[in-house]
Amino acid sequence: MSATFEAPFASLGRQWGVEDHSSVVARWLAAGDSGDVEAFDDLLHGDVVVHAPRGLSTEHLEAEKQVWRDAVAAMPDLRHEVQEVLVQGTWKWHVSS
Fold first, then answer.
1. pLDDT tens digits, 10-68
2. SS3 at position 56
3. At how many degrees (to 10) do helices 21-34 and 61-74 cross?
4. Residue 20 to residue 70: CA distance in whole angstroms
5. 39-to-44, 55, 64, 82 alpha-carbon distances in Å
6. What angle do CA 84, 16, 77 make, to 5 degrees?
7. What is the DSSP secondary structure assignment for residue 37, as one 8-state letter?
8. pTM higher than 0.90 for the full model?
9. b/e for 1-38, b at 16 or more Cβ within 10 A?
10. What is the span of the domain harbouring residue 33?
11. 85 vs 25, 57, 62, 89, CA distance in Å?
């Protein structure tokens, strides 16, 4: 399964001053996989848009948190791996699990 994530470039990782954007992606996925969706508050913009297959796309932080809660409840061993990170104005990346 793959997903595309979009958010304003400056909004990601701003609270930690993260320079390595792949680190923000890895933290977001690791937090989601572990069920720590409250960590999303520090990683994702409130108006985050995540395009995902099978009706899992979201258009807001709270909706993204709920998708992860549901996913982890259904698949407790869920794990994601970052395949590629592209940065230019708006973040876009593809991940697969």
1. 444 444 444 466 678 888 999 999 999 999 999 998 998 888 888 889 999 999 999 99
2. coil
3. 50
4. 29
5. 9, 23, 12, 18
6. 50
7. G
8. no
9. eebebebeeeebbeeeeeeebeebbbbbbebbbeeebe
10. 2-96
11. 8, 19, 24, 13
Both tokens of 23, joined, read 């680190």
96 CA to centre of own chain: 12
Distance of alpha carbon 53 from alpha carbon 38, whole angstroms: 23
Total domains in the fold of the chain: 1
From the list 39, 27, 43, the residue with the least C-alpha distance to 82 is 27
Q: How far apart are the C-alpha atoms of 19 and 32, rounded to whole Å?
A: 21
| CATH value at residue 13 | 3.10.450
